[in-house]
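W.,

You were right to be curious about this one. When I first looked at the sequence I had no strong expectations either way, so I just let the prediction run and decided to look at it fresh. Below is the sequence, 635 residues in total, followed by the output.
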Amino acid sequence: MGANLVAGGATFRVWAPNANAVHVRGDFNNFEIRDAAALVSDGNGYWRGFIPGAQDWQRYKFWIDGQAGPGYKRDPYARELTNDSSNCIVRNPDFPWHESGFVTPQFSDFVIYQLHVGAFYTPHWPPYTGTFLDVMDKIPYLADLGVSVLQLMPIQEFPGNFSLGYNGTDYFSPEMAFGVSEDRLAPYLARANELLEAKGLSPFEEEHLRSEMNQLKALIDLCHAYGLAVILDLVFNHAGGGFGTESLWFFDRQKGAEDSPPQYWNSLFFSDKTWAGGDVFNFQSDGVRQFLINNALFFLDEYRVDGFRYDEVSVIDNNGYGKGWDFCQALTGTLRTHKPGALQHAEYWPVNPWVVKDTSEGGAGFHTTMTDGLRIALRNVLQSASFSGENALPIAALANQLAPSGFPNFWRGIQGIENHDLVMQPKDSNDHNRMDRTPRLADPSNPHSWWARSRSRVAMGLVLTSPGIPMLFMGQEFLEDKQWSDDVAGHPELRIYWDGLRATDPAMRDFLRFTREFIQLRWQLPALRGEGFRVVHAHDENRVLAFHRWVPGEGHDVIVVVSMANFNRYGYRIGFPTGGGWREVFNSDVYDNWVNPQVIGNAGGVSADDIPMHGFSYSAALTIPANSLLVFNRG
């Protein structure tokens, strides 16, 4: 599909089942209508042809004659667009990938870091938003943090320079605002080659980084070299919100686009349903279904991504006129066969375990799905704890939500306390679904106070020790306390506060160390990635929670103990699965004003004696710091 360079020119293929005629107009024929550039219908709605002499970087568009008359249309499969989005560009997809030996991790080993390319790291604002190559600059930082997967919010072309990305209009072309122009490439090329040299890999030439297409590939290539997988956020439930006359909207130029309301069912790609200001795809159409499946296959093959997060699959299911679920099954079935190790991750609300069941059982066939039980329960605890006093907290309710329920494996649930939707600044006065970031939730009066710091450490620790795949949102790892915005121009004050890591106040540096070393602990202790889980103790009045993690059939027992009390507890007895020595392998209290000179703990370990408690035959008397999380491993 689209434009593909071959010997002597390029082939062109497009789906326009209701068109009367289709031509290709471009630099190769002075954008004139010529018989040699007329495409031939195959009788099944597809038009194809060969243009001799077409070359890399030449501009083109389709000229489609339909019921509403002739007009230009952009190629839905265009790999790139010109800066003003007025033309498509013929592109050679070849790229000098480095064979670094990278293999996508097992899903149970995923630790996801979600970011928005335009807002994540903006060292050149003003006037430039963040770019693919700015994210590249942070690859060593992210690798050192210990996350294993970068989840990029939607990167397909959207109208304008600022957007969350969920209003895409050109699905195969990366967003131009995320690219770096040739006149600014030199320092980025130097940085890319510095990163390659550190891994013993051959350097890029400048031509390898020309255009946003190659820059996204370079980002993925370097992520793989540093052990990071990359998953993209694909929006298959709806498109647009800013369609132009040359877009997918009424692609084969059927009548009805100018009617009020438009004759939606004539729009080819879309139904009469709308969502989030855009139009829902027509999942009853084989051509539309194939277009979306091809889009996912394209990014797997040409960009070597490691999987996808699919936005609001529930919208596909609920607005697909009975064919949405069937489309999901076709999508996941095709991609599982094509690249079994690539993650197929669904956002579905409310949480629906059928999303991750095999298609043979009637499920949708995704590997994982978002969960919200832990997020909601943990936020309730933090908010309740922010009030003065020692009132009881909903600890038992939190305990009941630690593990994703209803799934065949815990890793099928992706858990987090922050994400792009939750902690984004409201877009307008009617947008009531946004919330504070963790430190400000923990202490609304001062997000860097001891209360905020200590409670935020507990929240992060629970995300990283609870069953399921943990997900962090950009800045969360170093105590970012502001809501965020994709509109860097309109809200520069909401940019991620990277300078805080160099500020006089060490709070952000200490929290980053805490997060980094906790993720390292997750890698060191197989139980924290395993399927074994049991709540040991949950006490609302005492504000204490304890749970047991292990690897079924192997052991590797771990006990996690949490206190949200505002004072230290001494001699607090917790049940342990076996007697004898247990090492205190992590104590969050150490990280306050690193190294905390007044740390409270258990001097590196405890001994469990044969006093039965909490369903175990053994227990140990613990010293538990205020607002803390402790991890014990069998010594």
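Here's what jumped out at me. The mean pLDDT is 95. And, maybe more interesting for your project: Residues 507-524 form the longest helix (18 residues).

Coffee later to discuss?

I.
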